[in-house]
Design goal:
- The structure is a single chain.
- This protein is mainly α.
- It has helices spanning about 10-15, 25-45, 45-55, 65-90, 95-105, 110-115.
- The two termini are about 25 Å apart.
Length: about 120
């Protein structure tokens, strides 16, 4: 079995020295940043639900696929954490609010499932 390469990195460490004050902007610019980054954030977050959907449908059937999707899901979690931090920095977001919004979203994989 080929093991996926895993790179450990931390969004908190990566953005540690940055503060929201470094990214001050007009309210319209902050809103535009939010509108641009929000879909990227929830796409990364939805990876957890896609992985579960694939597992529930028994579409992850080999050890290699299991290893790949496990490594992929861990990386997507880091991307989620990174986007949350970016939105905190540049778009006036809060981690608590963002996580609540993410948890409240529905997850519809119908368009993908119809193709399987």
């Amino acid at each position: 079995m080929t093991t996926p390469i895993r790179r450990n990195w931390s969004p908190k460490e990566l953005f540690n020295s940055l503060t929201p004050a470094m990214f001050n902007a007009a309210p319209s610019d902050v809103r535009a940043r939010w509108d641009k980054l929000w879909p990227d954030l929830y796409t990364e977050y939805d990876a957890r639900h896609l992985k579960k959907e694939l597992a529930d449908r028994n579409l992850i059937v080999s050890d290699e696929a299991t290893a790949f999707f496990s490594a992929w899901a861990i990386d997507e979690e880091r991307h989620t954490d990174g986007f949350i931090r970016i939105i905190e920095l540049v778009a006036n977001g809060s981690e608590k609010d963002l996580r609540e919004r993410l948890d409240a979203r529905s997850h519809d994989f119908g368009p993908i499932i119809e193709q399987l």
